[in-house]
Amino acid sequence: AHVRGGPIPAVTLKALDGQTVSLESLKGKPTLLAFWAPWCTVCETESRNLGWARSLVGDRANVISVATSWEQPSQVTAYTQRNGVDYPVLLDDSGLADSLHISSFPTVYFVDAQGHIKGSVVGYTTTFGLVLRTLF
């Protein structure tokens, strides 16, 4: 039931550091959008893979995570500290996950350089799987 083929919704989300990021600003490079919840143990297991994927793709792609299903931003901060998160974290308080029909975590969306959704995956994904789906 995931959204496919169309453009990623044109929303602006607040980053954990307080800045704002427009998803439209990510155009020009392929983008991995990883949706996770601070209570999700599988998300914690996959977290290191996101960091490694970001290192491997370098400047060729964006690797962005979107925290959803949280009550207080402090829950997201605790998750990032506990897992040594070294990639950007956006806070989904706009209903983005709902608009993309995300109902379980982790869910990763792969967006092409033109901003169109090319696919998604649910559940644990290896570093190799993340990199391959992002770049190809």
Number of extended strands: 7
Q: How is the main sheet built?
A: 7 strands, mixed
Low-confidence parts? none
Helicity, in percent?
A: 25-40%
Description:
The protein is α/β, with parallel strands linked by helices and 136 residues long. The chain is built from four helices and seven strands; from the N terminus they run E-E-E-H-E-H-E-H-E-E-H. The protein has helices at residues 41-57, 73-82, 96-99, 127-135, and strands at 12-15, 20-22, 31-36, 62-67, 89-91, 107-111, 117-122. The chain has a seven-stranded mixed β-sheet, covered by helices on one side. A hairpin with a 4-residue loop joins strand 1 and strand 2. The longest helix is centred in the middle third of the chain and has 17 residues, at 41-57. The model has no long low-confidence stretch (mean pLDDT 96).
